Every structure is written in structure tokens, then in C-alpha cells.
Amino acid sequence: MTETLPADASIVARLVAVMDDVGAVGRNAQMEHGERYRYRRNDDVLEAVHPALVRHGVLAVPSVLTVEYRDKTTSRGNAQVWCSMKVEWTFYGAAGDSVSAIVVGEAADTSDKATNKAHTASQKIALCQVLSIPYSQDDPDDDRQAVGAPGAARPSPGRRSPQGRRRGREGSNEGPTQADLPPVPASTEAVEVEWARRVPGGRDRSDGDRLQARLDALRPELAEAACARMSEKANGFPVRDVESLPPAWLTVWRRVIERAEEANARPEREPETVVPPDDTLQGGG
């Protein structure tokens, strides 16, 4: 635990002290619908961060900049509201100095909670990004001594060939590793530029349209889970449809949708809450 800072410590020093106290927040929740995967809830992040913020005199204040709503219809004909909210989170120190981060939270809901979910998503994204909260404290250097015996040939540090990566994935249920995934886009505007460069009727456009049609054909909770899974793979980048990510992500979309379609073919269970009330369709973190 970081020692108490002097009263005149800057907000940057206070945030660094918070980072030191918080450490990692793991994926402790399980998505039970569609493609099953683990994620970290907003409550888990708050429980880890709140004591450190209080201890070091940091106040986080949100200011909603823009809100966008869209009415959608699920594949079963149910009304659904999608909300995208741009929020500026300002972190104040005891002296009144501050640093800010602007993030976008997105969520969809068939009831009246899309706004709450989007705001909660922005909070989790802001805290995780500003404080650089990792999923694990594991040190990658810990495994270096276990690679081979003294004098043994060392594995090549280069990247595996596409064939090697494919063979590894075929023998595992984990899918591509983070190193195999395309780069995470810098912003939604950058994604729009990428898609604007694609010729209408071209391969990427056609593939994207087909994948979107398959996504729309899923049960609402499975489509929602698929978007959440893609957001997780993209380090928390907001995902609401196929074109929320650049064309380079189409192959990843295909794998995620295929798994969702397998769940879609099974009999539907009794309605349950798909996303916990305290979490949203985020990212990263």
C-alpha cells in the first residue's frame, strides 16, 4: 500500500498512488448465454478502486457530452433501445487540479435500462483506462527460466506462421490469442473511415453484410452476448454491430457468430437477465 501523500500532491501523483494500491482486477463473472466467457463487472472494479480513491483524495466526476439513441427490433420482433453515450470523466485532487478522460459507453436493452447501462460502461472504461488496471498481476518473466534446459535449443522468437497458428487453434477451444487478433481501432471515427474505403459490393462489404444478417438472425440475448464478446476481444472497444470494428476483424466475427449460432440452434431457456444490472455491453478491460 502506498504511503499517505502530502497535502499538496498533484492529481497525477495521486492517481499513480491509486494505481499502485489497486493492482489487478480479474474477470470474475461468467457470461452464461451464447458464447460463454469471463468478464469483469463494474462492481468488481469499483470495489477495488473506491478505497484507494478515498485514501488518496481523488474525486471522479462524470459529465455527459452526447447521448445517441436508436430504436431497433430484435429477430423476434421485440423493441430494443440502443444507447451510445460520450462521457467526460474528470479526476480531481485535493487542490482542485484535475485530469480528464473522454470515453464512450454503449448498451442495448429491451426495457428502460439502456441509458443506465451505457453510463455504467463509461465508468468502468474510464477507471480501467485511466488507472491502467490489468486483468492479472502475473509477470511474463516468471516463465522464462522454465523454457528448455541449460544448453538446450531455444525456440525462435519470431511469430508463428499462419499455418502454425491455425494448427494450434484447431487443437484448442480457446480460439486466437491476443497476439493473433487485429489491432484495436483508435476510435469509432477511424472505423468509419476504414469502412468508407471499402467499395460497395466488394468482398469486405459483402462479407460484412452477410455476417450482420447472421448476427441479426440470432436470439436477442445471443446477439448481445456476441457483441459483448467482440468488445472483450477488442479490449473494451464499443461494439454494437459488425461494422463497429474494422474489416480486419471479420474473421474474428465469423468465429464468434458461428459459436452463437450453435447456441441459437439449441432450445431456448426461460427468459433470464442477460447482462447483470451493474454491468453493460462494454470493453477491456
What do these coordinates show?
Helix content is 37%, strand content 16%. The chain has 285 residues and is of the alpha+beta class. The chain has a domain at 11-130: 2-Layer Sandwich (Enolase-like, domain 1). The protein has a three-stranded antiparallel sheet with strand order 3-4-5. Strands 1-2 form a two-stranded antiparallel ribbon. Helix 6 runs parallel beside helix 8 (250-265). The longest helix has 17 residues, at 114-130.
Radius of gyration: 21 Å
Assign the structural class, choosing from mainly alpha, mainly beta, alpha/beta, alpha+beta, or little secondary structure. alpha+beta
- Architecture of one domain in CATH? 2-Layer Sandwich
Shape: elongated
CATH domain topology of one domain: Enolase-like, domain 1
Report strand %.
Answer: 15-25%
Helical residue percent band:
25-40%
CATH superfamily of one domain: DNA repair protein Rad52/59/22
Question: What is the helix/strand order?
Answer: HEEHEEEHHHHHH
Distance between the termini: 23 Å
Q: Helical stretch count?
A: 8
The CATH C-level name of one domain is Alpha Beta
* Beta-strand segment tally: 5
**Mean pLDDT score, rounded?**
77
The main pleated sheet reads as: 3 strands, antiparallel
Q: Largest sheet, order of strands side by side? A: 3-4-5
- State the low-pLDDT regions, or none: 139-176, 271-277, 279-285
